[in-house]
Amino acid sequence: MLQELETISILGRPAATLSLVPELAAETISPVAAAAPADACITPASEAALAAFKTRVDDLIGSHPIVNSNQFTSWFSQGDASPEQLRQFTVQFSVFSHLFIEAQLRKCINAVDLASYRASKEILMNELGVMFTADGSIDNGRFRFTAAHFEWLAEFASHLGLEFNQIGKRKHGIASTLEFCDALMTWYSSDDESTAAGASHAIEHWAAAGFWKELIAGLKIIKESQLADLPLGFWVFHDQIEDQHAAHTDDELAAAFAKPDFCEEAFLAGGKAMLDAVAIFWNGLDEQCSIASHNSTASSCDAL
Prior knowledge:
By secondary structure, this protein is mostly helical. The protein is 64% helix and 4% strand. Mean pLDDT is 86; it is low at 1-7, 9-40 and 297-301.
């Protein structure tokens, strides 16, 4: 049994505890269920076709630069971000995190069947504050304002001196962040089922590639050296839940492949486009960080 990790408090009230202790985990970390078996009968020919397609998918994702090397998160993991760089990063991440809710709602609207609709609502409603039950669903789950993911991030931002109206809004996003958010609406929330499935698959692999862990590593250093009260619950929660999601991506791929109208090329196009947009987001943060570092150095020199 793992020990309790951290209690998330918003406005002085406990919101959720990140823990794998059974009685607490039911409200925070969802035991993600595997994708439902495909209705179609599995034959040796279909198994071979799926294996061949999975190889194409793995080659596409595995060879993408942003999956193999993320310069920003690699640098961030060292804990060298200045207070200004940390605030800038937080603002941009908050814009993505908040606008993701729009994309998830669009994904619900564009669902092709009730099962897909409900699966999309599981994510949306948990984002908004409906907690998972012991069965791993938001159905019959409890709602709390303070369980909304963005409120956790807002609490984190407040420790950096950022007010609520300074984060999470489109007007605060730089061009690269907004391009990423728009790509989520186009590809992840596409009304073409195969395209959306490919984008979702790519997002899951990106999220499981370790960027959460690199961000947490850097934040822990900053917490220990500068901001002892900095709450890391938002980051730890998402790292834990993405580890669970990653275990089921192959099942989800098989379920998508078995759909009668599945299009391999649309799936691959959605996946590549989504990863390209992810790269734009992180590269934009890297460029913003470099500019902030240059300006800080220039200011120091001017003062001499």
